[in-house]
Specification:
alpha/beta, about 10% strand
Length: about 575
């Protein structure tokens, strides 16, 4: 085992026996095999689209599209720890690939330059057992094997940057699919072309750098589609106070990201005497009109994903995890936690694609729930989507020009449990009273629950902290920045704006590549820089984008106030 795809990797080098996330060596090998299977599928998808007699909307290509994004999502940090589930997905990918390959060859097509991809072009794992798939991963698909094949650590670093960013794209693409029930053929064509490039062991530095930036570009399209899908399906989000203290009654907790799953749960629990709470990245659900119309969506419980073992154990009802992040459950709640979609943990009950929550509801009705209201009731306002913030641009610009607003800080991203993530809390606390903080993702929990910032306002009455939503809502920050730049007739880099990103997993990698593909500079990234970025590649990113690590909060703040 050698895994270094997330920021928390052991000793900031790699996890080699068991993942810090809890992933076993066996599961890691299966995930490596799954990634090779998806790359092989991608080669045949590219070949199919280059074959004139195969239509771009061929149903087989749509099957391949869906398996690509869902399969890759299973390999993200804290998503799927179930070896049997991953083995099943590999065989599904291989079966569709075989059908597609047969169709391509029958129609006179083939993989262009197949020699370049070695065994990936012809691999066939359809009839392999889970143990055989695991062995394949150990021998053929792991990081060490792929690095040796490329034989250039800087080129392989760029390959990893593109790979982990594309994993994030596939995760966001899966969220879009959950909302609209179909994939975007143009987006998926690009995704498969990028995977095809990543499948090659050739150390093409220039091509791999361009490929990584292409990941950022396609991620921008996917984030925009997700933003639109949420608004079209659940209504335009609006700033809404969400209760953060308990309400008496039976209870179900929903964690993850997927709003449509929550909607179906709310429908099925109407009139059942069960209250629904959101957790973690589901907090923005309270800002969507179609969701907050249900009176039994009563509040938000808990904080970020890394605290779930304590928070889930204390929750007096069943818990549903719709997407990342999940940790190996404690015995205290393992019999009342349910997974959905790509989430998988052996021994945890899984809710199928029919979204039948009967078992969850019945279990909630049998449990005590919250015995009384927690008073005084507390609230947090979420829902500062770009549709709510952009109309305020005039007030922001006026404040900036008059000197009433000293700077805008975007502080957000993925959270984690390491002690040095306190940097983000300290930085937010030290920002000037006349500055504006935009925040999103689970890292916002270090800010929105901070008593020093709670309820703070600017001189013009605007809240000092604007909760823009999930990491899935990163598009809102991009829109706000670009619209402010348009209004001030300058570039985003010339705005009085500092970006400080907390990264952990592959969604954050995708967002970073989107920002870099837009030419945005002076981003601070931490708490540490990714282990897969070599010194030479880091130098390229520093020279081209002035990408920076984190220092001491006070010193970094001084530099940011000076526009550095």
């Amino acid at each position: 085992m050698m895994c270094r795809q997330c920021e928390q990797t052991a000793d900031h080098i790699a996890c080699t026996t068991q993942g810090v996330c809890g992933k076993s060596s066996e599961t890691s090998a299966l995930q490596d095999t799954l990634m090779d299977s998806v790359k092989s599928l991608s080669l045949w998808c590219v070949a199919a689209r280059a074959t004139p007699s195969i239509a771009s909307d061929d149903p087989l290509l749509e099957q391949a599209n869906v398996l690509t994004i869902k399969g890759v999502y299973c390999t993200l940090t804290n998503v799927n720890f179930s070896s049997s589930r991953i083995g099943d997905i590999i065989r599904q990918v291989e079966n569709v690939k075989h059908e597609l390959k047969t169709k391509v060859i029958e129609n006179g097509g083939d993989i262009l330059n197949a020699w370049e991809y070695g065994e990936l072009a012809e691999m066939d794992l359809r009839d392999k057992s889970d143990i055989e798939l695991e062995e394949f991963g150990h021998k053929h698909s792991g990081l060490v094997v792929r690095s040796a094949a490329m034989n250039n650590e800087d080129a392989f670093s760029l390959n990893e940057i593109g790979t982990y960013g594309l994993k994030g794209v596939c995760a966001y693409g899966t969220h879009v699919y959950q909302m609209v029930g179909k994939t975007d053929p143009e987006v998926m064509s690009t995704v498969h072309e990028i995977f095809a490039k990543l499948a090659s062991p050739l150390p093409d530095m220039e091509g791999l750098l361009a490929n990584a930036l292409r990941v950022g570009q396609v991620n921008a399209k996917v984030l925009a589609a997700l933003d639109g899908a949420h608004a079209d399906t659940m209504g335009i989000p609006e700033p809404t106070p969400a209760r953060t203290t308990a309400v008496q009654g039976k209870a179900i907790l929903v964690s993850g990201h997927d709003m449509k799953d929550l909607y179906y749960l709310l429908q099925q629990t109407e009139g059942k005497g069960v209250n629904i709470y959101t957790h973690g990245e589901m907090l923005p659900a309270h800002s969507y009109p179609k969701l907050k119309a249900f009176p039994h969506l009563v509040g938000n419980y808990g904080t970020a994903w890394q605290n779930q073992r304590m928070e889930f154990a204390a929750f007096p009802g069943p818990i549903i995890v719709t997407s990342n992040c999940i940790l190996e459950p404690r015995r205290a709640y393992k019999d009342r936690i349910y997974s959905m979609n790509e989430v998988g943990v052996d021994g945890v009950q899984h809710i199928g694609s029919d979204r039948d929550f009967v078992a969850v509801i019945e279990q909630a009705q049998q449990m005590k729930g919250f015995l009384r209201d927690v008073t005084p009731a507390k609230y947090h306002t979420t829902g500062f989507n770009h549709r709510a913030v952009v109309p305020l641009a005039g007030k922001v610009i006026e404040a900036a020009k008059s000197g009433a607003l000293s700077r805008i800080f975007l502080i957000g991203g993925c959270d984690g449990s390491q002690w040095d993530r306190s940097y983000f809390t300290t930085l937010a606390e030290q920002t000037p009273d006349d500055s504006l903080i935009l925040t999103m993702g689970c890292a916002k929990n270090r800010i929105i629950h901070n008593p020093e910032l709670e309820g703070a306002t600017l001189a013009n009455g605007l809240p000092r902290v604007l909760d823009m939503g999930q990491c899935n809502d990163s598009y809102s920050a991009i829109v706000v920045a670009t619209e402010l730049a348009k209004a001030l007739n300058c570039s985003v880099n010339d705005l009085p704006l500092s970006l400080v990103l907390s990264h952990l997993e592959q969604k954050a990698a995708a967002v970073l590549l989107t920002l870099l593909s837009m030419g945005i500079k002076n981003i601070r990234l931490g708490p540490s820089l990714p282990a897969y970025i070599t010194p030479n590649i880091l130098n390229v990113l520093v020279e081209k984008y002035n990408l920076q690590g984190l220092g001491e909060p006070a010193q970094d703040l001084k530099a940011m106030m000076e526009g550095k």
